[in-house]
Every structure is written in C-alpha cells, then in structure tokens.
Amino acid sequence: MRLFDLELVANISILFPGTPLADGLRRAQDAGFAVVESWWPFPGPDPDVRDVRDFIEAITISGVRLAAVNMFGGYAAKGDRGLACRPERHGELRACLPALLEIARATGCAMFNCPYGQYDAHRDRKWQDQAAVEVLAEIAGTVGEVGGQVLLEPIYPGANEEYPLRGVEDVLAIIDGPLAGRGATSVGLLCDLFHLGAYGDDIVATVDRFAGRMAHVQVADYPGRHEPGTGSLCLRTALQHLSRSTYRGYVSCEYVPSGIVEQDLRWVDDYRGDEPTRGRVSAPVMPAPGGGQ
Fold first, then answer.
1. What angle do CA 85, 70, 179 make, to 5 degrees?
2. pLDDT tens digits, residue range 48-82?
3. What global pTM score does this model have?
4. E-state strands within 73-221
C-alpha cells in the first residue's frame, strides 16, 4: 500500500491487538499491506525456541515482509518504556538478542527499535546515560553483523515523565555524540509523528529539517492515537513533505483503530485527494494516552 510514493506498513501489534499472529498477518495483507512491523512478539525477553520458529514460520507463510521489530523493552503495564538506561536490567535486553538475530536472518528484517527507558529517579542520570550508550553500542555492533540497525525514538512524556528522549535533537545528540565516538554506526532515528505532535513540535518543520536523518517513520493522530484524520495534527502535509524529501524508508501505521481497521483505512484515499490540508501543524501539550511504545 502506497501513499504519496511512500510505502505504508501495518503495525500488527496495535492494529490487530489480541488477534492470532497468522490472522493479523492475513488481515494486513487483505487490507493491502505488503509490509508489516511488530512490537516484541513474546511475553518475556528469552522466548522458547519453538515460539521463535512459529513467529518466523507465520511471517514466511504469509508472504508479507517484516520491516521492523521492537526489542524487548520490559513490561509496559509496570511502567517500563525500554531498558537501555537501566543497567540493572541489561541482562533482559541482551537475552532477547538470540531470538532477534534468528528473526533477522530468517526474514530479512533489518530495523530493531530499542526504547531508551525511563530514568530511575533514585540514581544518577549521567551514569544511566553512560550505561545506555554502552549497551546501545554493543547491540548496534551485534545487529550490524546481520545488516541490521538499532532505532532510537523520542517519546512524548505524558505518563512517561522519566523518559529523557523527547525530541529529535535528543536522539541525534546521542547518535552523533557518544555513539559515534564508540564507532556505533548501525543506529538510526525513529521518528513517530504522534509523539512529536503530542509534545507540541511542528511536525512539518521537523520533517523538512530532519527527513534525511530519519531511518523509520510512524504515524498516528493526536489526541487519541487513532488513524490520521481523527485528530488535529497536519499529518497529510507532513507526509507530502516527507515524500518530496530524500527519505526512502517506510511509514508505519502505528495507531489504535477507532473502529474496524479495514474501514478506517479510508483515510489513505482521503489523503490522496485534492482536499486542502486541515488541522494545526502541531497540537497543544496535553496528557498523552497510555502506550509509550
């Protein structure tokens, strides 16, 4: 499925929650998607070998391409938004790597989102940042061996008030600074227009300024985190500008459907039309809905 010459990706974890994997893949394909992505598809960091093989088999049989997978980021219900800056939990992060590498080799998936994590308020933040850089450089080296890339994402604080990467500049400061200093070249910027818009950033200006640095893009409208056109963000304009830039990656539909996914995809046809763009460029800062993925 394409929009403005951009390939749209179905995030099967959020578009089809609670749906068996094979059914979610089939629904994505029937809706017109040739490419999918997934949050960490297992309940814990160290999945059973059979579960990994079942995941790979479902992807292979479906015929869709797997573009990206989230690394294990802890347990969202407990407030986890990643483990990179939590050195006491790096063992969990490393434990997911064997499954991740097997998925990469079998499917050709090459992008792996590693949520940075929320600070431990009782520990020194500089020490936590140093630990994050060390483990991110290590992981980037590991996935780089199979042609993969680690993704880093800014997230709107909201309920994630201890998550330090709140804007594109925060992520690039790490990529271009300490990670570059360690020779970690397999790290890229994941730009979720929902999080940036919720934070109050001018998403069109962000696209114009940073499109050449983006490795992956995700979309959802704000407020609500539903499909584009349901909120106040100027996603149509942002995506038009993205398509005219040097960006050649995917755009993932990482939103909570307001109804039935297949019907809600009418926004794609609406965006293809000649209607004038509506809505503000960015939204006021308001409490974000839960999530943080």
1. 45
2. 999 999 999 999 999 999 999 999 999 988 888 99
3. 0.91
4. 111-113, 149-152, 187-192, 214-219
